[in-house]
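Q: What would this chain look like folded?
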Amino acid sequence: MLSETIFTIKNEQDFENFAIQVFEHQYINNSFYQRFCNLLGVTKTSIKNTDSIPYLPISFFKQNKITSSPVSIQQVFTSSGTTGSIPSKHYITDLHIYEKSFRDGFRFFYGNITEYTILALLPSYLEREGSSLIYMTETLIKESKQPKSGFYLNEIEILIDTLQQLLKERKKVLLIGVSFALLNIVENYKIKLNDNVIVMETGGMKGRRKEMIRSELHQILKNGFGVSQIHSEYGMTELLSQAYSKGNGLFYCPPWMKVSIRDPEDALTTLPKSKTGGINIIDLANINSCSFIATQDLGKLHKDDSFEILGRFDHSDIRGCNLMAL
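A: My prediction, written as structure tokens:
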């Protein structure tokens, strides 16, 4: 099955071949995406390489059921959004694909999950339903099989004590937290970690604090935790894969995911590396929804295929893609 073989990608040619197959599958089975492509003058037979595949604006996930599978829905992941805004919805017909994507993705970057005690500080996500990040983290916590792995919502003192104990035992730890919660720790507690502890932020202040640039955030966290690097996870409701950064705000994709940069003034034009523009993502794990997404993030792609996030589009508009009424 194509949904299984995408996780066997080894090189650029494999990715190219599978991406075209996924496009053809979604063009045939996703009527909304097909209509979008047709409005751009693109058909199933006109695609010769990934450069010519249209990217669906991520905003369409807000009011449309984007699915490429006739199978019944197993789960609906929803975005947090802001007060009064419409959340995005990602209709999942096969949770096994999502689970394989985040398991294999974590293993690709960090190794076996059973080697880590996972301490999760994700208050804004735990306080609502439908978070794909909570689903992923909860699954990884269970599969770590470590007795101290778990969520710490309002138990910061217990979290600090657990960290101190794990430091003494020289256990490998993943402390994953939303940015404002990690800042609260370093501002209110004195704790010095070591290289056995990975501190990973998931981005965003979620309206709890003033937003700040990633380099400033990371410097504060590095100083506060006493670590050399702050790791980051880049994911979103509309994607079933995650990119990871092990420091300096540079993200890398797993083999079945790829980033390109589009011209902010012309969404159909791809920019060369080192130029700033809108981030387009191919996520082949999205085989049952849409794998070709034009996000609302601004960023830059580097020569080694790492990328960085530089901000968001004003008013979350993706210019040049307003071909279909929401």
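The radius of gyration is 20 Å.
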